[in-house]
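#onboarding

Welcome to the new folks! Below is a worked example of what a typical request in this channel looks like: someone posts a single protein sequence, and someone else replies with the predicted structure as tokens. Don't worry about understanding the tokens yet, we'll cover that in week two.

Example request:
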Amino acid sequence: MNMLSEFKSGIKKLPLKKVYYLLFLLFVIIPILGVLLATLAVLNQQFKKQAIENIRQNQQTIIAELRSDIDGMSMRMASMVFANNNEIIQTAVAAGEESNQRFEYAQQLANVENLYLEPEKDLISFYLYMKDGSSAYLKNYILKENVAKTDWYQAAMDKKNKIYVGSYETKSVNDLFYGGRGEMFILIFALAPDSSVDRSGKVEMTALYHSSKVAERIKENNRDYEKNKNSLGYARITDGRGNCIFSTGEKKEIEWFDGRMCIKSPVEFYGNTWYVENYIRPEELTADFGRLAILILGVAVFVLLLVSYFSVYFLKSIVKPVEAVNRGLRQVEEGNLDVFIEVQGQFEIRNMIHQFNVMVQRLRALIREYEEKMKKNHKNASDCLAELVERKSSPELIRQENPEFFEYEYLLVGMYADYGDSKKKGPDLGKEMMKSFYRNSQYASKCCAYMESPAVIYLMYRILESEYLEKVKSLIRELQSSAAKDFGICLFACIGERQKGAGNFLSGLMQVEQKISLRHLVGKERILALETELECADRVIELSKEWAGLADALYIADEKNVVQEREKLFDRIEQYEIEEIRIFMLSVILAVSRRFEKGNDSFTEVFGQEFEYSEKVGRIEDRREARLWLSNYFAWIMEYSESKLEIAETDMVVKAKRYISSNYNNSSLSLGQVAEYVGLNEKYFTNRFTKEAGETFSEYLASVRIQKARQLLRTTNFKVYEIAEMVGYNNVENFNRMFKKMNQISPTKYRNGEKAKD
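Example response:
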């Protein structure tokens, strides 16, 4: 946060052009480049991932064909060996022996060849290798010798009656059999029969040779790769030990591991595992990405060129003209009105420059006009307002002496200044604040002001526009902000109703003078517009006068009178609906806050903070909630007032009342005791107490005791004689007589709910 604040502070000190270049770099160029690089990185990974996925899909196609060949030929091999009670093996053995039926067996073997081998063109041969070194075959003669030494032959020999799959890759024409081609992938399905299959015991191995179409697919893959028609790399098939068992292409003998990465997928069958492998250089995986990246970079360069053009246009049409206006304003601030700015830039900027030039011309004319008027009449607008506020002159007289004072329609604004904890208080600080207001151009051109006291300021705002209320509110918010920031002063503003001419000036002024006290209800930094807010304001102010006694009692912590006044208030509340009750509550709060202000006490200190009472009271929903809220409110103020009186107590009568309130339950409490407590002789104390309290000591003591008794009768179950003792009466008959005298009803009837008379 500190770094951000320092950055913002540093930005504000830089010239507009440098700020523009810096922000353009930070928020346009760097983000575009960052997004571009991040996009290219993500796309690179996506293209690489997709290329590998394409290779794996091609491998799966090869694997599927290879599995199909293995599964199909394995079933055919099993069928040829085991079908019809091993017919083919027995016939082949018989056809090779010297006997009268040899020709017949040979003919049967030819029929078997037509049945099992001819329909399948990819079947090359079915071979029977005899233990004596001879062999028999169907379809094609296999040219290769020493077959018994091959891995597949030996593996099949180890597991009798189990099919083992081997392979052979032809190198050239007629390499394996007559009519064969080069680069054929031959699958060999071998099975070594035991005695249960070969009852003659002469056959050592049966082998089915099959040409797989996988070879054509791998050829096509490698051929297209060499011609740059695909990006799948060189494909081959290896066995579990890594030996290549099939590969094709012109670069068949390449160094497979020379700078290439290998992507492979396994093929598992009959406990054996082969691998389909593709070898490709890493850069070839992202070859398509490179082409796309060039396109993206081209678009990015084009966008940056457009942004640069916009930057140049913005500088020329907006930033430079604004800098020119700023220099002109600085010259005007320094008092130089011989300023003219050449019209340039965008339409709005050109219009602004034109208005600036017109404004400077108008200012020069106004100053000349003002100087001429000052020569004729030395009384300015602020002097006129001061005389009207102080009632030293009448509006009619001011209009005659200064006709221009009432030339425009106007608003009267009352402002209350709360200095808070400002070390430098009083008129000097207020005057400094008033001087600072003239830095605001709207205030300087439309307002005149008068400070009636350090706390109360009156403004007269000239209305020159249709949306005047929002304009004056905006001005006051700027003044509030300036006062709080520069002087630590909180300003409340009460905006009067729109006026015209001299006839309604005093009535409008009196209205603002009265309504400014409403700050206690809405907050010390609020702006209260009488045209639009607080429709009940007049009634609240008028009712607040009725609660002056309650406010006085709360201020001096006079518990007896507080209770009496509170009961009167609660009786009034019972007669009205909640809307009217809220008005009563606001009027009470206003009366109390005025009393504290009258005693030069901050009402905010009572609760430790400022509240918007109009909003709080607005949430009260019924009489019971209103009574509870007011009771808590009074209790809090009483506690504050009592604590304050304990710190500094100079009023003799207040001190006496508080002593009586604390000791009324003492039946022996006397006038002499109280006089001694306050430090006066009885005669002087009696006269002074009766004069200031409006009743004698005995009457006051009796009213406090009976008031406490009424409260106990309403809220407890104590017997009447117990309550009499609790409030200072040793004789219950004396208590009953005094209670009935003051309330025109007995204690028992009062408890039973009959109406007492105050």
